[in-house]
Specification:
The chain has 129 residues and is mainly alpha-helical. It contains seven helices and no strands.
């Protein structure tokens, strides 16, 4: 059960982090080499934190999730990106923010998740547009 939660957590944190912080759908993100690498790095951080906490995620789990993202419709946006565009509160503290906090506890660096958290922190409580 814990493994399945972390597998979903990895994918959700990756998609929500990039579609919200980059304010884009997944298509352009995965097509650009720099932003594609960023989404992979976000997911690698989640995997590293999970593994440090004893979750038996495969070392290449982030790469396999990236392959799954390639099958998503190019216009897909995670719910956090939609919430951001609508001025609603964000799930940031429970996604990239949680990775940062758990990583700090485990001594695992999480610079990409920290960047996402810091970029979106002004909008965490929502903002009327």
């Amino acid at each position: 059960m814990l493994l399945e939660l972390w597998q979903k957590f990895t994918f959700l944190t990756g998609t929500s982090s990039v579609t919200a912080s980059m304010r884009s759908t997944i298509g352009p993100i995965r097509e650009n080499p720099l932003t594609r690498q960023f989404i992979l790095d976000v997911m690698k951080e989640v995997v590293a934190v999970g593994r440090a906490r004893g979750v038996p995620l495969a070392p290449d789990f982030a790469e396999t999730r990236l392959a799954v993202m390639d099958s998503l419709a190019p216009e897909m946006q995670a719910s956090m990106a939609l919430d951001l565009s609508q001025g609603k509160p964000l799930e940031l503290p429970w996604l990239a923010g949680a990775v940062v906090d758990l990583g700090a506890q485990a001594g695992v660096p999480t610079p990409c998740c920290r960047a996402v958290r810091d970029i979106l922190t002004l909008y965490v409580d929502g903002q009327k547009r």
